[in-house]
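Box S1 | Example of a co-folding query
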Amino acid sequence: MTRIIALPGDGIGPEIMASARRLLDQIGGFEIDERLVGGASIDDSGSPLTDEVLEACRDADAVLLAAVGGPKWDTTDPNAPRPEQGLLGLRKGLGLYANLRPVRPSPALLDASPLKRDRIEGTDLLVVRELTGGVYFGDRGRRDDSAYDTTVYSTEEIERIAEVGFRFARERVTSVDKANILETSRLWREVVEGVAKKHPDKQLDHLLVDNAAMQLVSRPASFDVILTENMFGDILSDEAAMLTGSIGMLPSASVGEPGTPGLFEPVHGSAPDIAGSGKANPLAMFGSVAMMLRYGLGRQDEAAAVESAVDRALADGLRTADLGGDANLEDATNAVLSNL
Ligand code: NAD
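Box S1 (continued) | Returned holo structure for nicotinamide-adenine-dinucleotide
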């Protein structure tokens, strides 16, 4: 039995998690333990992530999260607990230093992309972003009338994220840096080249980040894995995400050392405006289940089966409200399950 901790969270979270659980039941072989996180956990215990839940996550094979947050817990009091602290606590507590965002537009939705069909067709890429280092975590401050932020990367931090990139690449890693200017980027390039030598079956190329931003919209179908540091990855993964069209479609994963549980979740939030209406699109949640199967549990065939069930449902005309249709959560869930 594969042990999954399910964290429904808030807003539409419990609704889309119920759909994900139906999907997992149909695949079979999972022992699912549902726990509280975010606002729901604050209401229960005063904390957005209890030690007990974190411990249960550490002991699991993978953690599946829906979404956290909502107006009920919005506060300007800096000492009050906030739902998103639950997410940060999970990332830190599970040592999740790699963020993975796939971009694979469903064939039926190619015309929803802001790019022309002939550009986007065939796109199937994965952005691998370093999540716990770089300028977001460096020393920062103010001095007289100036301000500074510092970027620091160690060889070890670069090595471990590069390993993730090569592990998940089918054939090619495109490493993105700014090595013509930044010293951290020059170290990045050196270390990534060293890691590439351990993966002779995979190709490595380098792109400067400004050029990468351009190539991502001019030839997205030519990328396999895009490997990059925290800030460049933050920007490029949002650019890449837009290629698919709707936020209700996008899954993500955060992973750490091999053998430790990863965290799999939709990119979208708890959508309080539609919570309880039964209108949520469960497809990003289903995509997160597929990522959990592929990147967290090594169950490639089942991951592909989930993705193709989603593709077939869309090809048959399934459209939830966010995609301009009138299917509700129940219809969307049934459509995917019947294609699985
Ligand atoms: P949001 O992603 O929740 O919603 C943005 C818009 O997209 C809304 O109109 C919403 O109805 C729609 N939407 C989102 N997911 C959808 C889905 N599956 N199906 C159909 N429509 C969908 O972003 P927001 O409104 O800025 O944030 C709402 C709450 O979620 C806030 O409390 C925020 O802090 C939190 N949040 C959580 C996460 C997370 O849990 N990872 C991420 C982002 C925001």
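Residues 173 and 333 are 35 Å apart (CA to CA). The longest strand covers residues 2-9.
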